[in-house]
């Protein structure tokens, strides 16, 4: 699966989608879910929590391992995807549809400064060596 | 460091395996979804590359007497030809060197199968003990042999389809019994809690055997599902649930250690002198999350630690083996420290699942 070009990415393997209302949806990339394998548990941040960029804020667990999810930018959590409580496997089947939480970023410019799809792919390729 | 490979390495890659470093071996962790692989073994069958495990032959007069002294379990329990016995092998201080299976073939030949990561130290220990107590025995590492496990309710039928010449000799095997069928040594043993065979065969034949099984509809299963299957079946993993720093009585292996008979064995004196203060129990997580090795267990009798934890595909809950103070009882609720939270878990008697079904 290629990384959608309309999304932004972090070096810690989150994807970020800017919604019409200016909020951002956050999930983990196809590469991240592929590394972790079958997902069985998601712990999302509490709505209203104020996050700093790169702060640990959520956890995904596969059968194999637990992994931290980091806030891509600073801002406030405005929604979490409750569907993942019962269907964490959606992250495997549809990584770019299975958003974990939404944030209202403090600065839209922080989002614009994240990696684009090509830069993220280059980062993934560099980690493989 | 270059990873060691089994003769099936190219076959794994051709079958789409994701490969990982498993104790220095380049091994398949899954071929897609490890949960699908897990269910396939519980409900149908699957095949595992276990060529990294080591086969050792102990031969000569007095081999039974030697094993009676070498191992914590009593080799005298197996008298039916081919019958297998699971045992711990202990240091004099009672620490577990390895857990292994011995097969009684004749009074001059016992076959031993040991873990991959411990094989060299096991063989060194066996040879050292043999030199001191049974110098005429030969201890031979069978590096010429490969091993494949075929597990699941349909496993034996599939093996007979591929190796029809072994059927007569193996169809009446009881659980934990093997038959020597010339080039193929077929044992009704495994590490999944399901029926099936473990087949030892010449290395140069294993690739064809693997592909023939696959053609007969048997899918490959990775180490990921192997771990969830064995944990559901309540089987210890050496290096995780026990090692040289703990004894068998603190590792859920009291059933394999005979302390009542007159028999002397290496480690017996230490076990008698040091009654265990801890024991191995099963945990079932009541809250949401996933139990993992090394998480702290909080009980009214003191702290314990999870030795193996995972998500159980059969129960769709998280399960674990944990070493806890001996006064903790089945049915108690304990707390497990996961990140910044204390989650509730129920203390249960394991196994958690066997023969396709949940048993708790």
What does this structure look like?
The complex is a heterodimer of chains A (129) and B (360). With 129 residues, chain A is of the alpha+beta class. In chain A, 24% of the residues lie in helices and 33% in strands. Chain A has a six-stranded antiparallel β-sheet. In chain A, strands 4-6-7 form a three-stranded antiparallel β-sheet. Chain B is an alpha+beta fold and 360 residues long. Among the domains of chain B are: 9-54 and 144-232, Gyrase A, domain 2 (2-Layer Sandwich), CATH 3.30.1360; 278-358, Aminomethyltransferase beta-barrel domains (Elongation Factor Tu (Ef-tu), domain 3), CATH 2.40.30.110. Chain B has a six-stranded mixed β-sheet. In chain B, strands 14-17-16-15-18-19 form a six-stranded antiparallel β-barrel. In chain B, strands 5-6-7-4-8 form a five-stranded antiparallel β-sheet, with helices on one face. Chain B is globular. The N and C termini of chain B lie far apart (43 Å). Classes of the chains: A alpha+beta (129), B alpha+beta (360).
Fill in the CATH topology of chain A: OB fold (Dihydrolipoamide Acetyltransferase, E2P)
Chain-averaged pLDDT of chain B: 97
Overall pLDDT level of chain A:
96
Q: Specify Rg of chain B, calculated over alpha carbons.
A: 20 Å
Question: Alpha-carbon distance between the termini of chain A?
Answer: 20 Å
Helix content of chain B: 10-25%
Strand order of the largest sheet of chain A: 1-2-3-9-8-5
Structural class by secondary-structure content of chain B: alpha+beta
Main sheet makeup of chain B: 6 strands, mixed
* Biggest pleated-sheet summary of chain A: 6 strands, antiparallel
* CATH level 1 class label of chain A: Mainly Beta
Low-confidence stretches of chain B: none
The CATH architecture designation of the domain at 9-54 and 144-232 in chain B is: 2-Layer Sandwich
Strand content range of chain B: 25-35%
Rg calc of chain A:
13 Å
CATH superfamily caption of the domain at 9-54 and 144-232 in chain B: Probable tRNA modification gtpase trme, domain 1
Q: Pick out the low-confidence regions of chain A.
A: none
């Amino acid at each position: 699966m290629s990384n959608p070009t309309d999304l932004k990415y972090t070096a810690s393997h989150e994807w970020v989608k800017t919604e019409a209302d200016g909020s951002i949806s956050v999930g983990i990339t196809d590469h991240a879910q592929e590394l972790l394998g079958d997902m069985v548990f998601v712990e999302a941040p509490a709505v209203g929590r104020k996050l700093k960029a790169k702060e640990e804020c959520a956890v995904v667990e596969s059968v194999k391992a637990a992994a931290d999810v980091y806030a891509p930018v600073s801002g406030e959590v405005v929604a979490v995807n409750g569907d993942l409580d019962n269907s964490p496997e959606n992250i495997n089947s549809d990584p770019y549809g299975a958003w974990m939480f939404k944030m209202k970023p403090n600065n839209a410019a922080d989002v614009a400064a994240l990696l684009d799809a090509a830069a993220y792919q280059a980062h993934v390729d560099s980690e493989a060596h | 460091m270059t990873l060691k490979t089994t003769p099936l390495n190219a076959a794994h890659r051709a079958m789409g395996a994701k490969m990982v470093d498993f104790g220095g071996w380049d091994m398949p962790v899954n071929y897609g979804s490890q949960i699908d692989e897990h269910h396939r073994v519980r409900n149908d069958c699957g095949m595992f590359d276990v060529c990294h495990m080591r086969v050792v032959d102990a031969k000569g007069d007095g081999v039974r007497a030697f094993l009676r002294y070498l191992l914590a379990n009593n080799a005298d329990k197996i008298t039916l030809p081919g019958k297998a016995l699971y045992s711990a092998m202990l240091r004099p201080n009672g620490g577990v060197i390895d857990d292994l299976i011995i097969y009684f073939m004749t009074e001059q030949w016992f076959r031993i199968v040991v873990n991959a990561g411990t094989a060299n130290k096991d063989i060194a220990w066996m040879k050292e003990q043999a030199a001191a107590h049974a110098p005429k025995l030969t201890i031979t590492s069978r590096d010429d042999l490969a091993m494949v496990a075929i597990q699941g309710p349909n496993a034996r039928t599939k093996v007979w389809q591929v190796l029809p010449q072994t059927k007569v000799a193996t169809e009446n095997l009881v659980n934990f019994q093997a038959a020597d069928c010339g080039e193929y040594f077929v044992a009704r043993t495994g590490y999944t809690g399901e029926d099936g065979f473990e087949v030892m065969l010449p290395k140069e034949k294993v690739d064809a055997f693997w592909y023939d099984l696959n053609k007969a509809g048997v899918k490959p299963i990775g180490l990921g599902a192997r771990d969830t299957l064995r944990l559901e079946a309540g089987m210890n993993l050496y290096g995780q649930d026990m090692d040289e720093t703990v004894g068998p009585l603190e590792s859920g292996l009291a059933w394999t250690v005979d302390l009542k008979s007159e028999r002397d064995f290496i480690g017996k004196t230490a076990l008698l002198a040091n009654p265990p203060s801890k024991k191995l129990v099963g945990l079932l997580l009541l809250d949401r999350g996933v139990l993992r090795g090394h998480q702290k267990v909080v009980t009214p009798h003191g702290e314990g630690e999870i030795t193996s934890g995972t998500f159980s595909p059969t129960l769709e809950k998280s399960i674990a083996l944990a070493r806890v103070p001996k006064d903790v009882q089945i049915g108690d609720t304990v707390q497990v420290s996961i990140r910044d939270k204390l989650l509730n878990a129920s203390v249960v008697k394991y196994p958690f699942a066997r023969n396709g079904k949940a048993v708790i």
